[in-house]
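Notebook entry, structure prediction.
Reason for the run: the old model in the group folder had no record of what sequence produced it. Starting over properly, with the input documented here first.
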Amino acid sequence: MLSEQSAATVRATLPAVGAALGTITERFYAGLFAAHPELLRDLFNRGNQASGTQRQALAGSVAAFATHLLEHPEQRPDAMLRRIAHKHATLGVTPEQYGIVHEHLFAAIAEVLGDAVTPGVAAAWDEVYWLMANALIAVEQRLREERGGHTWRSWEVVERVAETDDVATFRLRPADGGAVRDFLAGQYVSVRVALADGARQIRQYSLSGAPGPGLRQISVKRVRASGAPDGEVSNHLHARVRVGDVLELSEPYGDLVLSGGPGTPLLLASAGIGVTPVAAMLAHLADAGHRAPVTVVHADRSPATHALRTDHLAYAAKLPDVAVHLWYEQDAPSGTHAGLVDLTDVALAPGTRAYLCGPLPFMRAVRTQLLAKGIAPADVHYEVFGPDLWLAGQV
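New structure, fully documented this time:
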């Protein structure tokens, strides 16, 4: 994929570029938003920008892509690209915006690395950028075409349910009364809201179930400050959105979806609000009559904070071959475990395919335990809520 000359240059300069990526991405976003403030106002997550997590995710993805090109020159990191492309497609990222990003990213590289960026170095990294960008553009275009193009559609809230103190479920129907496209269990939608300062911020929320024909359901956790800003959109939804209000939603996207046939053993592991796609997966498996073994693992602070707990357990109980393992840090009732997830004594069928969703430390710990139990790395799939810092950690 990468030309021989560029590969040699990228291999020689990757340590220096990688070491400076944190500074480069910081300068990149500063320049980008100075020139295009509308992108920060109406496209990028302002909370992730303030916390720095988006910069870390960008640096991690660039480094991971370049490293993959060098180590596997005949392969493309399709899993990483698909995950990014689904997020971009649901946000409405356009091909033209890749040119804008290129301009400001390479200006930041030149500013940070100075004279080290010779014409040959610039050309090599330019090739890396456009290999990644053009691959993403192609996947995003295909995803949009499958869904009839990217459009925002108005949806009316028809029901709101308090799941826990910090999680609310919103059930919505199209305001135009039109048809609703099917979704795959595990997918998410983007929700765009108008905030008090005029910004139109966008967030992704997993579809936590299929409540009925012509409806969508999302379950939103209110993000409270913990060394970072409060979640602008989640707090807006909790404080201001009631039955009868209208939200803008995208079509469903996301690649954390069940694969394999009805004979595939599954492990569905979640923690906290990561239960939302898993609840939808369990509902789908129950409706489809899945008969192979299913292992359900969930971790939470306490039963009171376990969102969708009733649905989670009810859907699992409909499966003919299921094992449910719950861990609670506080107030663990009889039949559950106290503390953090430990899969040592959890039996898994050969060929189990695992799906993980929750905080990154949880998913890293579960993945490590699964690999130790003989689960193939290719059979462990995950979804990160927010910027994908898995790549930043080079796991």
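Summary: The radius of gyration is 22 Å.
The old model has been moved to the deprecated folder.
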